[in-house]
Amino acid sequence: MRSEEDLIRTLRTAADQAAQPPAAPGSLPPGSLRPGSLRPGSLSHAVAARRRARRFRQRAQVALATAAVVIVAGGTAAVLSGGGWQAQPAVTVDEPTEDKPTVGEPRLQVRPAGEVWPGAVVKMPAKAADGWKYRPVTGISPTEVLVTAESSFEKAGRLEVYDTSTGTARVVGEMPAPEGVKGYFSQAVEVGEKYYAWYGESPNNRDKWADFWIMPREGGTARQVGEVTGDLSRVERIGVTDDHLVWSVRQGGVYRIPLAGGAPEKIDDTDGLHLTSWPLAAGYAPGKSGEKNQNRVVNLETGQSTAVEAAPGTTQLTCATDWCFGAQRDRTVVQRIDGSDQEQLPEGMEFFGGELLGERFALVSPSSGGDPAGDYIPVRMVYDPATGQIGGVHRRSPEGSTSYGFGTSSSPTTIMYWDEDKKGHRECRTTSPAGNVSCQSTERGGGKEFTVLNTLAIKPAS
Amino acid sequence: MQRGALFKRLGGVEFEDFVRARGPALLRYGYVLSGNPDDAADLVQEALLKLSDTWRRVRNKDNPEAYVRTIMARQHISWWRRRRREHLTDDVPEGSYTDRHATGELWRELASLPRKQRTVLVLRYFEDLPDQEIADILGISCGTVRSQAFRALQTLRVRPAMLERRRT
């Protein structure tokens, strides 16, 4: 005989396996699933298609059936409050303002990211104990933010990890400048399995030169891996494996240098490729500068190349492992990397561009208008394609400018941050006898604390 | 279908959010109810379509998820009553079904149950609902729930003792 526990386990196991893609790794290209599999992303489309089909069926019957169910649900809900179903919708349901059909454009209601994803928005100090200013780099876990500490503006001198759960910082190590290089600035930091890595340049002189550094993740002394000159020094992004430092250059092409030292070499078949996050690199279709669409994503470890197709009218199509975002005029378009689940996001969500935050989230701009003094209007919005949730970043100041920052990591960062105490300030003065007025927006205050949105702390879609 | 248009019709972003947020869980539920991915998708889509019709009412008064799950359970029974679908729904989910707990075998045997019996088992053991609630959802008496469950457990050779006490 079997027990009831066996039955429970069977049902749960089946449910868990139901939503997973096929197990055999490498048997299908990334992003592809067997036909008919349970793909929540396409649900909205399917429901919409059903709605269209239904219009041609008998409306009266459907209306009756629906009404009958409403009554049942009413009865069910009363029982449910006793704690039957635990599942709650992950979104809060707003009260409607009125029960009539909406007239005109619906106003896009956005809540602050901290309300949409509690736990993913945290505070951290803007300065280290010795007064050096922090510059957030990226989240390395849901509760840890990698930061550089700067002795002066953009002069990174130290790598630290701030733990938001304990409110403590840990020094990983110093980021030294190489001897004899004037005007040296260390640039984007990359998080590898074993190492942190970064590159440095002397951006304010004409030397075509760059160098590369690594530091063990557990902390220790930074070590210079190598120096490059000429075209190879036009570093746009780096990656680090256990034995190589990898980088792509602005004109395209991916290179590597052994961590143990040695000569740089070009990785085969990487012409025109740009690293996104090791081992992934992207190629671009021809187009206007700043509007090009990615048209292939290549895994440089396996050599597998996935073609990406942009819908007509799309620009700036940018992909990560699973998702791509792009612009269609003033709208944002989302699709899976295999081209499925293509959708245009609602009006009032303009694609801001750039890479996918945490390789999943799109950055979009709210439409202008509205009254920042009365309503909550975010400076930017973060959109999660897996759940459709939207979180607002910071809030637009009624007075002058409002600033926010992205993590400065080499691979797409997982974080955005802002200073809530910094207030916009607008100063106007008459500049000519004719009465012309010139206004200048500045920010005042702040400098003590950052509010950080770490997308690593946003749970994956269930 | 562009999402903006869907928003407009439903008067807000919430329905879409709901589908996105709860879709995966609903699909899992549909899978356990029906036993195969195609019917699971069918069930969920039809139920969501109905939910969208009444969204403005349901979202305030009820738990929309409970509402959808109720529709799905009822639909699952009535569809098969009506349509008598031919194909057997005994697909084992792809992937590795080790028979450590004989779960694969039990899963296959679940497909042999009449729909109503299976639905009762799913509501009782997967959704963890008391019999009275199951009766309310399916519109049958509490006694019928018990007899359906009893027969199903007998077919599956499941000893009904252990969890019986806390169900009443």
Could you explain the architecture of this structure?
The complex is a heterodimer of chains A (462) and B (168). Chain A is mainly β. In chain A, 11% of the residues lie in helices and 37% in strands. Chain A has four helices and 32 strands. A five-stranded mixed β-sheet of chain A has the order 2-27-26-25-24. A four-stranded antiparallel β-sheet of chain A has the order 3-32-29-28, with no helix packed on it. Chain A has a four-stranded antiparallel β-sheet with strand order 4-5-6-7, with no helix packed on it. In chain A, a hairpin with a 3-residue loop joins strand 8 (185-191) and strand 9. The longest helix of chain A is centred in the first third of the chain and has 22 residues, at 59-80. Mean pLDDT of chain A is 78; it is low at 20-41 and 56-106. With 168 residues, chain B is mostly helical. Chain B has two domains: 1-84, Rna Polymerase Sigma Factor, Chain: A, CATH 1.10.1740; 102-168, Winged helix-like DNA-binding domain superfamily/Winged helix DNA-binding domain (Arc Repressor Mutant, subunit A). Chain B contains nine helices and one strand. In chain B, helix 2 (14-34) packs across helix 5, helix 2 (14-34) crosses helix 7 and helix 7 crosses helix 9 (142-155). At the A-B interface, strand 1, helix 1, helix 2, helix 3 and strand 23 of A face helix 1, helix 2, helix 3, helix 4 and helix 5 of B. Strand 1 (2-3) of chain A pairs parallel with strand 1 (158-159) of chain B.
Short summary of the structure?
The complex is a heterodimer of chains A (462) and B (168). By secondary structure, chain A is mostly beta strands.
Any idea what the CATH architecture of chain A is? Beta Barrel
Proportion of residues in extended strands of chain A:
35-45%
Q: Assembly type of the shown chains?
A: heterodimer
String of helices and strands of chain B: HHHHHHHHHE
Determine the CATH topology of chain A: Lipocalin
Shape of chain B: globular
- Using only C-alpha atoms, the radius of gyration of chain A works out to 26 Å
Distance between the termini of chain B: 47 Å
CATH architecture of the largest domain in chain B: Orthogonal Bundle
Number of helices, where a helix is a run of at least 4 consecutive DSSP H or I residues of chain B? 9
Which CATH class of chain A is shown? Mainly Beta
Number of strands of chain B: 1
GO molecular function (chain B): DNA binding; sigma factor activity
Protein name (chain B): DNA-directed RNA polymerase sigma-70 factor
Family (chain B): Belongs to the sigma-70 factor family. ECF subfamily.
Domain RNA polymerase sigma factor 70 region 4 type (chain B): 105-156
